[in-house]
Amino acid sequence: MRFLWLDINSSYSHSSLAFPALEAQLSQSQRDKIQWEIISGTINSDIATIVANVSYLNPDYIFSTLWLFNSDYTLSLLKRIKSLLPEVKIILGGPEFLGNNQDFLLSNKEITAVFRGEAEETFPLFVQSVIDSAPDFSLKGFCLIDQNHLYKDNGEAITKDFALLIPPENSQFFRFDKPFVQIETSRGCFNTCSFCVSGNKCRKVQYLSAGIVTRRLEFLASKGINDIRILDRTFNANELHSISLLNVFSHFSEKMTFHLEIHPALIKDKLRRTLESLPAGLLYVEAGIQSLNDNVLSLAGRAGSSQASLEGLRFLTSLGLFEVHADLIAGLPSYTYKSLIEDYVTLAKSSPSEIQTELLKVLPGTLFKENAAELNLKYSPVPPYEVLESDSVKPGEMLKAVRLSKISDIWYNDKKWHFCFRKLITENEKFLELFIEFTEKVNLSSAAPERAGSLLFDFCQKFFPVQSVNVSHAWISAGLPLNIKVAGNVKKWEKGFTGKNCPFSELSLSNSYYYLEMDGCTAWYTFLNKRKHTVPDCIITN
User: Fold this and answer.
1) 180-413, which class in CATH?
2) Which of 41, 65, 192, 428 is at 20 to 30 A from 514, Cα to Cα?
3) pTM for the predicted model, two decimal places
4) What is the pLDDT of residues 274-309, one digit of tens each?
5) Going by CATH, does the domain composed of 2-153 fall within 3.30.1490.20?
């Protein structure tokens, strides 16, 4: 029996966790009777090459997962493959199938069946039925158009005992060569966010014990893995569980870093004390804010007040122990564009390392999808299902929200410009709105450092000329050319000619020294003569 897993990701650094998670559950006797093949690629891979490779392998079954960013590409692949291999059976799973799947199956007749939910416990049963020459599509989770052309829906499969699942990294197909590894320490979420596929109030949250997590991390460490992404929807939903795992993580501080999502409104006293005691650099924290409007949060079904979230975010950033990423969702019901801008400025004042703003995505299987008409949410009918208009934001303002997202990535989230950009936002009430308008006719899809610096400098020269020197300082500190106007009035220091005393304690003929007059101080820079147009070796302000 020839099985093929089609592994299509958004980029090379990602890999599908679904395949090893499923394959790990198979018995050895089942593995002995299956000839597995994998074809991997990204959404930028050459379609013709992948189609030809699949055709050559001529599998009996093709399995794949669909989600926001690979859906269109993967479907186009599968339709071509089906034309070449009309007998192949194609079975799909993933987040795309958490809602009603009838329309999808009727309009994509190349697909044999789709699976809704968590498949680890069902997969071995289905594989055995295929081995026995009696494929069982009556199992929980399967949706299909049957032989009578009727839609058959077997509901959603939910794992009964998460802790008993064999970890994905035990699979022979697990990828240890990727930049990071993803693991779950819990399954499900206590929260009921209407925009999230995990927002199921009837779902029981299941946790892995600290002992299980420790053993898994020890195994991953033995494979040289040092970047762990925790997939839990809300890592601190259960305070005792999160504290026990943070204590586990701290034992791996010299080997690993951990990326996880914390709900800032739910940081209680014991968790605060634990976070305060962690080694620097152990964590990268995503702090889910979404909005700082309590009415918006209530309509979205999200637990925790906006004030508690803001206080929690300020606590996290005040620790100075790890990078903190905060996010906002534009297009939520009752969330105006004006409020989005105000919230962004408020977050900037709290000084997270990064701020992400993204459009609401009306995902299959979510309450917002079910109630879109009632909530006046108009959204794209094709992936990524982004909201186009809400009850509070018209298409023109939605476009500005998209531009804010790009601006945030280019300037706030880039260490070259972060401190300068944050200062401009927090000290000038109208800065952000004016800058969004200033860049309306500029293509921000790719902004190289020199272009980004030039845009920001030109803007400040026009609207906030006194503060343009801060852009010059950021430009020079980033090692960008000193002979460009963005470098401002930077001057080369030469002993006896400038009338200024150089603050560097030791002067060398191998170095060049420059200074920039700033508001109330002078910034000094030293460069090796051999390494001009690079990051300064030393910066002093006095």
Assistant:
1) alpha beta
2) 428
3) 0.93
4) 999 999 999 999 999 999 999 999 999 999 999 999
5) no
